[in-house]
Amino acid sequence: MATEIKVPALGESVTEATVAQWFKQPGDAVSVDEPLVELETDKVTVEVPAPASGVLSEISVKVGETVAIGAILGAIGEGAGKVSAKPAAKKEEPKAAAPKPAAAPAPKPAPAAKAAAAEGLAPSVRRIAEENALDTSKIEGTGKDGRITKGDALEAAAKPAAAPAAPVQVRVATPADQSAREERVRMTRLRKTIATRLKEAQNTAAMLTTFNEVDMTAIMALRNQYKDVFEKKHGVRLGFMGFFVKACIAALKEIPAVNAEIDGDDLIYKNYYNIGVAVGTDRGLVVPVVREAQELSFADIEKTINEYGKRARDGHLKLEELQGGTFTISNGGVYGSLMSTPILNAPQSGVLGMHKIQERPVAIGGKVEIRPMMYLALSYDHRIVDGKEAVTFLVRVKEALEDPQRLLLDL
Amino acid sequence: MADTFDLVVIGAGPGGYECAIKAAQLGLKVACVEKRDALGGTCLNVGCIPSKALLHASELFAEAQHAFPGMGIDVGTPKIDVKKLIAFKDEAVDGNTKGIEFLFKKNKIEWVKGEGVIKAPGKVQVGDRLLETKNIVIATGSDVARLPGIEIDEKTVVSSTGALMLDKVPGRLLVVGGGVIGLELGSVWGRLGAKVTVVEFLNDILPGMDGEVVKNFTRILKKQGFEFKLGSKVTKIDKAKTGLKVSVETATGGETQVLEADVVLVAIGRVAYTGGLGLDNVGVKTDKRGRVEVDQHFKTNVDGIYAIGDVIAGPMLAHKAMEEGVALAEQLAGHWGHVNYDVIPGVVYTAPEVASVGKTEEQLKADGVEYNAGKFPFTANGRAKANKTTDGFVKILADKTTDRILGVHIIGANAGEMIQEAVVAMEFSGSSEDIARMCFAHPTLSEAVKEAALAVTGSPIHM
């Protein structure tokens, strides 16, 4: 059934109008509210929107003809019709996703250099850079005096970061009989950001992973001995994280490169230890930071991490709690991972991967013993950390965990 | 009186005087040859400046007649004293030309009065004085284009020069030529009481301007009382006791109509002027339209001789000549000088004004460039509504892929001032989004530019 397109009321004392321009031709597809025709009166020029979706089946009045209010301009029929070029049609505003800052993984804190680079950038460039996590200092500007134009930014956003020669894989369209068995879901903004950050980390650092293993017997024995007293005094369970954090700090103090950061041509060595502890949530991985961990006791560390874990799962972490980390610990063991290669949390230079504690036969003093073993992995940025340093770091961590008294004696 | 210079500029119009002043500021010893009794060329004496004075006065007259009563301002029936009006105009001209004289003195540029003749490279004769110079700049500008067979007496058949000093408001004014000058001067006398008819050879007024702008503006002028005879030409003008009888024929050579007028204004364009320069003495080449041929550094085919402004090819605009004059002076002084021809604005100083910069939709289509267009009418602008200047719109054309602004076209009050921000944005390769994200003062007419920018890829807020 066709829907009539009528001349709307155009204002007081306006009785007629002239057809100025048709935006669509018979046979074109139209959506409801899309502008179809422009009418001119003495006072105003008005666009008449489509009263329904369908196909423009008929144009009753030609350009230049006069129509009265309420007269019929044309009709819209049912069907798909063809889509033609729309000269003045308004495009929909892209839906702005509202990201929860709490759920974002540790974004780069803006160093002074970045803030300076934002000056002199056109507003559109700033938006595109923010939305696509672009490093504007790396975009080539073709505008006046080498400024970055919107076109430059759009191009940079379309390319993979620090684009190597790898061509973009164009996905082969799913054959029709399979498409019903697939579900296409738009990426959330959080996932997009995570994806970009991960790729950036991978493309920037010379990332390698070195492995070692830890005999957890000593720690487990220590825990068993003191767990009740600990909990009674401190009000929090004695877990493993306190030991791992302290072991890492001891090793970081000995191998400062693993706690450092590359900034342009400089290396920034940090004399404080903000240890990020990765927490899995159903929205994705977040890494809240235990600040100044070198000052914290076992109990403090356990409390902080527990608190973070709870708030992370509720989505209540604050942005500043995710920023400023100098080193990260990630525990894949809770999910059952035996060994893995963690990815760096840019701009940090090292990340420790903890794994599942599994009883294994190991050779000790020429005999086979069953011990609770954990594989440790250290992924590191080889641009700043030597192989020797990385291996030594991991050895120190292993030593501290296998003999916790070393932590007491600062060995 | 010295006779040796670094630079002799022939012509003290906007191109010539800017070139001379800039060169002097950069340390060159400059002389400027001008035969008129005043500096400033066509622009200051019989062009831009006097016409703007008359446009302003006639606009205020129209306001007093039509807008004042509605605002509660009672000034009785406004009358026009043409003698005083012309004196007002002369004052504006005088003030400006004296200003250039002052600038010449300040920059120690010698004004050599008389007609300059190039005798040889580096030698310009003015009267009985021979000026020796390293470089010569030809800035002799342009003159009124004539209609074949029609004599301009500057009394009843006038060029723009005569139209700027009529001694009374013509009852019927026939304007030959629907370009900028014809429409501006037609507006002046139309507002003061003349019945204006414009005869234009092509099918549209303002040839070369964006089609949608031309269509809208034609309608606006018609509402103001203009009558148009498009696609028509004037073949004959006979003088009779009751006035002038103008024979108008359709351009395709069809029927002839005879229209009556008290004054006919011939405004069909301008032509490069090199009369009496002695170009043949030195072999400087000109094209078939009489324009001096130059390369991209304004150099003619003769070493040491340059040319700028209306006398060479390009839009015949005072500001184009000024840009060229300055760029050439910079080059001659050993610096970098440049004119960006892609971003030269054009303004029609009628009411409402029409202003544009960059490409029209027709040009983009012809070039096969894909673009988005954003349009915003002044009827939706708060300031325009308050001032009751709601005629017109802003249209921004931007590249479909990069969103770079390719053209901006405005009909509206203050369009000539508003177009400048488009020029700024385009010089910086700005995008429509850049303008849409800037802060515009409220309430201003300029906000329409921001809303048009929003309309390019999204939606304006106030519509």
Overview of this protein structure:
The complex is a heterodimer of chains A (411) and B (463). Chain A is of the alpha+beta class. Chain A has three domains: 3-77, RNA polymerase II/Efflux pump adaptor protein, barrel-sandwich hybrid domain (OB fold (Dihydrolipoamide Acetyltransferase, E2P), Beta Barrel), CATH 2.40.50; 100-160 and 186-204, no CATH class; 207-409, Chloramphenicol acetyltransferase-like domain (Chloramphenicol Acetyltransferase, 2-Layer Sandwich). Helices cover 28% and strands 24% of the residues of chain A. Chain A contains ten helices and 19 strands. In chain A, strands 9, 12, 15, 16, 17, 18 and 19 form a seven-stranded mixed beta sheet that branches. In chain A, 30% of the residues are buried. The model of chain A is unreliable at 84-116 (pLDDT under 50). By secondary structure, chain B is an alpha/beta fold. Chain B has three domains: 4-143 and 271-339, FAD/NAD(P)-binding domain; 157-268, FAD/NAD(P)-binding domain (3-Layer(bba) Sandwich), CATH 3.50.50; 343-457, FAD/NAD-linked reductase, C-terminal dimerisation domain (Enolase-like, domain 1), CATH 3.30.390. Chain B contains 14 helices and 22 strands. Chain B has helices at 14-25, 41-46, 48-71, 82-106, 160-163, 180-191, 211-223, 279-282, 318-332, 361-367, 382-387, 415-427, 432-436, 447-457; strands at residues 4-10, 30-34, 110-113, 116-120, 123-126, 129-138, 142-144, 157-158, 172-176, 195-199, 227-229, 232-240, 243-250, 256-261, 263-266, 270-272, 305-307, 346-348, 353-358, 371-377, 393-399, 405-412. In chain B, the strands form five sheets. In chain B, strands 1, 2, 3, 4, 5, 6 and 17 form a seven-stranded mixed beta sheet that branches. Classes of the chains: A alpha+beta (411), B alpha/beta (463).
